[in-house]
Amino acid sequence: MNRITVFTVLFSLACFTSLVAAQGACPSAPGAERAACICKTVGTAYKYYADTGNGCSGASWCYGPGQSTYVTCQAGLLFNEKIQACDWASNVICTAPPSSSPTPSPSPITPQPSPGPSPSPSPSTASPSPSPAPSGGCTSSSYTQPGGACGSANGLCCPSSSCCSKYGYCGISDAHCGSGCQAGYGSCNSSGGSSTPSGPSPVPASPSPVPASPSPTPKSPSSSPSPTPVTPSPSPAPPSSSPQPPNTRASLPVGPLVVGYYQTWSAGWASTGANLDLARIPSYVNVVIVSFAKPDCSYTKGSFQLTGTGLDFSSDGTIVRDAITALKTANPNTRVLLAVGGATYYNFAGTRPQCIKDIIDDFGFDGMDFDWEPVNSNCVVKPGGGVSCATDAEGVSVLAALRAALPKGQYLMSTASWHVGMYGEGAFVSSKPASAYTGVNLAMAKSAAGQSLDLVNIMAYDAGNTASTGFDWSESYRAHRAIWQSQAIAVGVEIPPEAWGGNVITLPQVVERANYVKSSSTSGPYGIMLWSLHKTGCPNAQQITSAVCSTFGMAGCSTPLPFTQSACGNPPPAAPSPSPASPPANSPASPSPANPPPTTASPSPPPPPGNTGCSSGSYAQPGGACGSANGLCCPSGCCSKYGYCGISDAHCGSGCQAGYGSCSSSGGSSNPAPSPSPSPVSNPPSPAAPSPSPANPPPSPGNNTSSGTVADVISSSLFDQIFLHRNDPACSSNGFYTYSAFVAAAAAFPGFGTAADAATNKRELAAFLAQISHETTGGWATAPDGPYSWGLCWIQEGMKTPADHMAPYCAESAEYPCAPGKKYFGRGPMQLSWNYNYIPAGQALGFDGLNNPDAVTQDAVLAFKTAIWFWMTPRDPKPSCHAVMTGSWTPNPADMAVGRLPGFGLTTNIINGGLECSGTGTVQGQELDRIGYFKRYAALFGVDTGSNLDCSRQQHY
C-alpha cells in the first residue's frame, strides 16, 4: 500500500466518522432540514451522502457551500453511495464507509450508450461539478461526477478510481472496467469490478436526460446538466440479441378503428412489461400509435437500447418490447404502430429506413406511422388550382424509401395528415383556412407510396373551427377521401384545449364525428383518432374513447384506460354542431406534457349572491374554463360563449352561457370583444412532441392595437403559468425571478413587447421568454409538467461549480479589457457572457460590468434588464431580436442568400448562431428546446408562432 493509498483510506475513514456523527446529530426526519444539517457538518460538497439513519432510503445532496437538497429513492430501492444512485437493496451495504477501493458491483451489466429517462428528484443543473482526481491513469485535468459521462467524447475523467466504460460512463462493474474500458480516462483492469453475479444490476449512474450544452463564443447557451440520482430500470432478464420473427399482422383490425396516440414521455417506469400502462390498454382502442421515434434515428439491432431512437420511455427497452407483446397477446385485434417524426423530430432529410425497420422488428411493432410535419413547406396554391410546396419532393421520396423498407403486405403503414393537407385543388381549392401548409400532403398522397398506405389519420384539430377560422372538419374528411379512396380514414380529435386555434370539442361533437365517418363507410374503412391517450382535459380520454366505442357498436366500452384522467363529471348535453364554438385565437391554449396538471380547475368557493342561475354545483377557478363543455360554473362574472369565466363584454354579452354564470347585454367592460385571429394557420398540428401547459387561462380581452405596457399583456398569474417551476426548491433561482422585477425591468425599455399590434407584441414576448427559458432551463424529458415548464431555474452558469473552476470568458482587447480575478461566465436570464458583453451592458444599465459582473446575480431587476438589453440592442451586422420579431427588420440580399429570414430561428442565430445554426438543414438539440418553449408560450398567448422557427439552414453571423 503506497502513501497515496494510505492517505486516501485515512481521509475516507475521517469523512465517514464525520458523516456518522452528522447522521446522529441532525434532524431525524428525511427532508431538506436533514440534508442541510448533514452537508454543513460533513463540509464536503459535490456529493450525495446516503441517509444511513433512515435505512438509506434517500440521500443528502451537497452541491456547494450552503447548497443542499434531499432526494428520496423509489419504493423498493436504496441509495448506493458507491455508484451515487438509487439501487436494488441487495446491492447496498447501508453502513459501508466511502472507500477509495469500492466493493465490486454484484453483477456485470450491459451499459447503455446513454441512459433512458428516469424519474428525477430535481431538474437538470447548470453544469457538471468537478470531482477529486482519480488515483491514476487520467490524461485530462477535468473530471466528471461519479457515474457521469467520461472519455474521449468529452475529455472528462472518472473520479475515485472508477472506470470509464467503452460507452463513456463511469462505474466499477465488469462492463465499465473490462473490455473496451478507456484507460486514459480512469482505472481499468481485465476482470472489472464484479466477481459474483447476482440479481439485476442498475443502469450506470448518469446525467439527467437533458443534453449538455456547450459554451458558445459570443453568447452562452443554457447551462449543462449535472448528474442526479438515477433510478435503475432493470429488466428481469438480459436483452435477447436474437431478432423477432417477421411481423405477420400486416392487416388492419377487423371492424371500425379507435386510434390512440401513446406519449412515451408520459409513461411511468415499470419493472415488467405487463406492468407498463401500454400493455393494459383495452381492446376497443385497437390501433395504438407509440410516439415518437426520430426519422434520423440511431439503433443497434438486437440491443433494445432506446437512446438514439427518440422514444422517451423511462423503462428499459426489453420492458417496452414485453409490453407490446403482452398488449397484442391480450388483444389479438389490436395493432401497434411506431410513430416516426412529430413536430420536433422533423429531420426527414436524414431518414434512416433500416434503423426504423430494425426498431419495428425488434420491439414487435406491426408497422409505422409516417408523422411527417415539415417546418418550412411554403405551399402555394396556383391560379386555377393545384399546389406546389417546397417539401413535395421530400415527402414523396422519404415515404417511398420507408415503404420499400417496410413492404406492403408485411408491415402496416399509416400517416398523420394535416387538417388542410389535402386542400388547394378541385372542389377544395378555396377551402379554409388558408395556410402555408395548404395542400402539403397532396404530392405525397398521389404518389405510389402514398397510395400504398393502409390508414390515414386526419389531424382535424389545431385549426380553429368555422366560427374562428372557417375550418370545417367534415370538409377536410371529404378532401382526404377524394384522394385516398380505398384507405381507412380516421378523423382526429384532440382532448381540449387544442394547441392552436382555441377549439374546445364536446362529447356530443365527438359522437357526431363518429356517426359521420360511420355513415360514410361505403367509401372505405373508418375510425376516430385521439390525440392523445395520456393528455388530460375535459372531456377526457376515457369519455371520448368510450363514446366512440359505443357509437361504433364495439364491445367492452366501459373498460377503464390505464391512464390518469381529469375529473370532468358528466357535462350537460349540448346540441351538436359541425364546428363547435371555441375561444378566439388569442385565448391561450396548448397541449399537455408528461404528467401535467389536470386541465379541470380545482373547485372554487360558491359564487357570491350576485351570481345566480347556476345549473351546476361545481365551480371553475376565476378565469377558468366553464360552461356546457365541462359542466362548471363561474364563481363570479360570466361564462362566455367560448367557455371561459370573465367580466368583459365578450364574456357577458352575446352568446354568454346563462346557466353557468351571470349574463348581461352590456357586460362588464367597455373594451371591444376579442375576435378570432384571421391569420393563416402556421403552427404544425399535433400529434406533436410535448408542449405542456397548465389549465387554460381566460381569453385576453383585447384590441388589435398595442397594449400600453408589458404588464397589460402578461399578468402575474400568466407569468406564474409560464414559469411553473421557477420557485421550485431544486432551482437555484427559487424566489429570485419575481414578476414585479420583470415588469419593472420591461418598463425601462420603451417598445419592448408594446411596439406593434397585439398579436405581434404577444409573439415577441413569447419569443423572448422562450429564449431566456432555454438559457436557464431546468427541464428534462420526463420532468413534471413537461420539459418546457422549467424556465428561469438557474441564476448563473455553473451554479454547482466553484468559481475558481469556471472558465473566465475573457477575450481581452483595448476596448474591452478584463479585470484581474473577474470572470464573465453566463449570468441572468439571458446568461450574459464574455467581457465584451458585460462592459457595454454595464454602461447602458448603470452598473460596473467590468469589475462587478456578479451584480447581475444580486439584483433581479438588473438581471432582467441585462436580458432585455441584449434582446433590444443591434450589433452590426446583427439586427436586434426585437426588430426581427416585430417586423421592423428586413433582410438584405446578402442575408437572403444565406437563409437569414425573419422568424424565431433568426433570434437563435443572433443569440447563439455559432453553435446552433449549422447551415446544413440539421436542427440541433438545443434549438429544438428553444422551439419547444416558444410553441408552448405562443399557445399560452393565443398566437401562432409564424414561420422560420429554426436556423438550421441559415449561415451564422
Automatic annotation (TrEMBL):
Organism: Tetradesmus obliquus
Pfam families registered for this protein in UniProt: CBM_14 (PF01607), Glyco_hydro_18 (PF00704), Glyco_hydro_19 (PF00182)
Region of interest called Disordered, as start-end residue ranges on this chain: 99-139, 192-250, 568-614, 667-709
Annotated signal peptide: 1-22
SMART domains associated with the record: ChtBD1, Glyco_18
Assigned keywords, A-Z: Chitin-binding, Disulfide bond, Glycosidase, Hydrolase, Plant defense, Signal
Comp. bias (Pro residues): 99-122, 199-246, 570-610, 673-701
Residues of the GH18 domain: 256-551
InterPro entries assigned: Chitin-bd_1 (IPR001002), Chitin-bd_dom (IPR002557), Chitin-bd_dom_sf (IPR036508), Chitinase_II/V-like_cat (IPR011583), Endochitinase-like_sf (IPR036861), GH (IPR017853), Glyco_hydro18_cat (IPR001223), Glyco_hydro_18_chit_AS (IPR001579)
Family stated for the protein in its record: Belongs to the glycosyl hydrolase 18 family. Chitinase class II subfamily.
Cystine pairs: C158-C170, C163-C177, C633-C645, C638-C652
Name under which the protein is recorded: Chitinase
Low complexity biased stretches: 123-139
GO CC aspect terms: extracellular region
Top-level taxon of origin: Eukaryota
GO biological process: carbohydrate metabolic process; cell wall macromolecule catabolic process; chitin catabolic process; defense response; response to other organism
Domain Chitin-binding type-1: residue ranges: 147-190, 623-665
Record-annotated Chitin-binding type-2 domain positions: 36-96
GO molecular function, one term: chitinase activity
